[in-house]
Design a protein that fits this description.
homotetramer; globular; 34% helix; nine-stranded mixed sheet; six-stranded parallel sheet; alpha/beta; 9 helices
């Protein structure tokens, strides 16, 4: 049985606590948060779980096998490194670290010590992403030509990372997982309305070999919440609207065949050429599935869906996007 | 009474014919199209309107005061120039010309001859844009901080201009009209899936002084039709969804106040802080209002909403965007 | 070639004129309306069509074969009867007549004179209804168990007939066409907010043998326009939302199996048990197809989809519903 | 401090446990369920709460002041009566009882013993209903003319009560609370597809003096979940769509003025005559507010929003609706 400690009892920490507490394959031993006041309701609701304001209590407790880190991004590296050095497996919130160098170091360290380091890209475990993955792998969609995502709402402003570091990890990880390709270059633009040089609106374009383009629109300052991704394949196209309660995924039997350049007149393309199919998605909590994946990685050496190298790629692209924004949208080769 | 000829009887030409034919302040004299077959149904439906396959018939007819050009973009310049040289006022489909140089030349020529040259940015005359303009001018929205537009569908592929030239004129002209500012630089990225180097998906970012950013997402290859623009002001935010039959504009009493950088923790911003207001929009046909504006410009010297300089700015930005795309998204100063 | 006259140039009359004028299989000879002012724009747009304010001009013109009646309901009977007596085929707006007796008389008269009398239930010719009909006939939906329609908006108040006579003909005719069964009884309730005893809100239930129930909710006094019909079959269920621009029909692979009554506990039924399928619908104008059906009925003796007996059933149910409302919702046997 | 026991640990029981456990003004002492297996996860999550499979343990424990009953409807009466006889205050799930007689008896008994008996119509405590109530009470909506509700989904089939008993209590209680009037008669129709004479689809019309009509459409057999209520006032109209995540209430500045009956022609009413207003609703859990109301009723003698007489009216209408259905939709006077 894996024994787990969770560090950070904020919004996401609560979800982690609920899922690891209820998980049949592990024991939630301790929850750490620097703010003792946050831990009081936890103690009432989960009296069997220990609480502490000191991370050392976790590091020094040899009965704890694994540490789950749900703190602000800038603290991930130090906390994860300390856990690995203490011989514990690590699950760390996305994005894995603030810099590519840090992510590489953690992965190297885990490898040396034969420990699991796993980023928490929970979105990959949702029924919607799993369904899209299976359709793409079964070649129902055809070669992917574009991926276009809008992820905007009136959201949490963060003071240590910009909106891309906050929201784009979802899109980058989904893109990486679905198309299984790495971009050769990226560009990003954005604006900071806060005077602190931290963009609250940003746009990221990822360029791939072989006719694929991906574009992500991220904002903390939209009056409406939009979570929408379009995926265009040679055979079919997918609209993934995560705000829909039941019809999250629509598969359009739609395509566009292009005539030769000789013809100088317009080519009329019908607005919707075929039927639409809305697959039923499994109802499960993605976070629980992610927790299981972490446990199986520790116990059985299974490679998790949300694995270290995928997390590394996400950080690589985020770091490059920041360089691009600061250079006026300059293309950055990866 | 203004006497009008229309050149080009395609999709938009039909709308122009209907509106100029029914307009109380002008007479529709002739419709020209190179394809005689297209003119047959016109003759049946409008037996009082002359038809011709030769543009010279219009140029040489001194009873025709004004020419309306609704042909592919690459032909705008030559047709408009000929009309101006023949002493006729000109209304030309958006975008005005294929190059900035051509637009400047036409404007110069019209000025010399004391003729009207007007681009047809019909969208500016819609109830929705007029309502947004009046709210912004009345300072109900506050200083505009961002404008974000998505204009995608499975649309007409054109073989002479890319998707930005086709769709972005709407967004650029609306942005120019609403905020009354010019960008200092732009960036654009995109992809061509047709092998002819004409982008069918493209993204354009416009950078302005004073904290404003505009971003346009244009595609001919989306399975769903989206026409959505978000406008964020310091006081309120607007969602303009042109696909909504009646509730096209929603005004959100929403804002975000940002705390100082000292605070290193997250700032929680509520998803929707105030009420929403959905103004009733006037029901009128925008194209009829545009036709009226053209007639009044000729007759009374009124400066049209969709005027030559606005049309020129649109072409300037389109030309720059093409340069940017071809240089891998490089920032182009204007 | 069939030569047609249209009587009544109101909202629907304009649509009829456009479709019969453009129809390849007939000639639109004359349009009659008592209000000469309404005919002026018609003369401008269709100079080849004669106009008149006198119905006699049509009746006495032997070159006219067929009369299309698009006037208020209370005048249908007299106008149709006169046309039949003058030897002309008749197409009459829905509902066919104000009373069952009148409808029966017209049908009898047409039969005697070997003329076509056809009600205009245009809705039956839409791509959506045709698609549903073909799926039901192919037994894809299974035995129909319920049909539930909401047809409400801030609509035209009529002073001669209540909201059921105005709106329910659509639902009753669709129901009759799709399930091909007649109800054995109906009930209706409603209210008049106008002081003239003409209901502006009304509800109609139709009871069928064999487990089928149909319910129609009609209102002229809703702030939103809703056109929604649910059809539940033993195999699948259909949602027909006519306000959707493209996805009018959704077919749910959904069912409910019911356990025996012994079990006194709740039975959990999943909210959506299967995939959803959104068929592509043909793009055609229903009114044109209806006009064709009328012409073929005259020319070839083809039985129209919207035929006299279907129109008669609609009037029978409307008459019964009025009796029911006036008796406090009493069940009326048919 | 009030000490509470909860009887029935099903779907709703879990919500009750969470809210009473976390409530600052009471102690959750015991949870009873006949099925011991259901209580195991409760013991793990709430180790301080006692569990039992015997209701007697609650009745005989003098430290328990109040009993919350969340069992199937047919058991409400016996359980509530026993609790009252044991001197305990009672909160009982809606509908209060299976018959009017039972509800009257419980209210009488509570009165004699000076105990609180309160039905749990939680919906009345939602932000949406509270907002509508305050607008109506402030006369912003005007005199209410109609209330039209659709509450359908693929839901829980119950084997002891029909769909009206299951779903209509929400609508009837909201109607009663908002308009503060009692209907003089009702009619209901419906159908049972299960062979057990328990309707899974039913329609209820409530007739009021003074021009008000209410109609409820309830179904367990819809492929889509609809929770929509239209409320038409003389000044404004409200659309309450409970499936909307944030814009649950839309207030339409819409009305219809009716011309005199003399005029035999149609009166054109614009589809939407004014602006729409979407008020921000407070974010709170309705169930917690209901729990507070129960506690204050016990402690301070406050009359709850969801009070015994309102609960009685709901049962009166449900009982009458059942009579009406079984008599073919006959009007039942109240």
């Amino acid at each position: 049985m894996i024994t787990v400690a969770i560090v950070g009892y904020g919004y996401w920490g609560k979800n982690l606590v609920r899922n690891f507490f209820n998980h049949s394959e592990c024991v939630l031993h301790t929850v750490v948060d620097g703010d003792a006041a946050k831990l009081t309701p936890l103690q009432k609701q989960f009296p069997t779980v220990k609480t502490s304001t000191r991370y050392e209590d976790v590091l020094q407790n040899s009965s704890i096998n694994a540490v789950v880190i749900a703190t602000p991004v800038h603290s991930h590296y130090a906390l994860a490194k300390a856990a690995l050095l203490a011989g514990k497996h690590v699950l760390v919130e996305k994005p894995m670290t603030s810099t590519l160098r840090e992510a590489e170091e953690l992965i190297e360290l885990a490898l040396q010590r034969n420990l699991v380091i796993m980023p928490d890209h929970t979105f990959l475990y949702t029924g919607a992403v799993q369904k899209m993955k299976s359709m793409i792998d079964a070649d129902e969609i055809g070669k992917i030509k574009y991926l276009d995502s809008t992820r905007i709402n009136l959201g949490l402003f963060q003071s240590d990372v910009n909106v891309l570091w906050d929201l784009a990890p979802h899109d980058i990880s989904i893109c990486n997982y679905l198309v299984n390709k790495k971009p050769y270059s990226i560009q990003a633009t954005g604006i900071s309305h806060t005077g602190n040089d931290i963009e609250n609106i940003a746009y990221l374009t990822m360029n791939f070999e072989s006719d694929l383009i991906a574009h992500f629109n991220c904002s903390w300052t939209s009056p409406v919440k939009i979570r929408q991704m379009l995926i265009g394949g040679e055979k079919k196209m997918i609209l993934f609207n995560d705000m829909e309660p039941t019809e999250k995924i629509k598969v359009y039997d739609t395509g566009y065949s292009v005539k030769s350049d000789d013809d100088k007149t317009r080519m009329l393309v019908d607005y919707r050429t075929g039927d639409i199919y809305v697959p039923k998605l499994p109802l499960h909590e993605a976070l629980y599935a992610m927790a299981t994946d972490f446990i199986l990685a520790i116990r059985d050496g299974k490679k998790p869906v949300s694995n270290d190298l995928l997390g590394l790629e996400v950080v690589r692209i985020l770091e490059a996007s920041q360089q691009s924004i600061k250079q006026g949208g300059k293309e950055v080769k990866l």
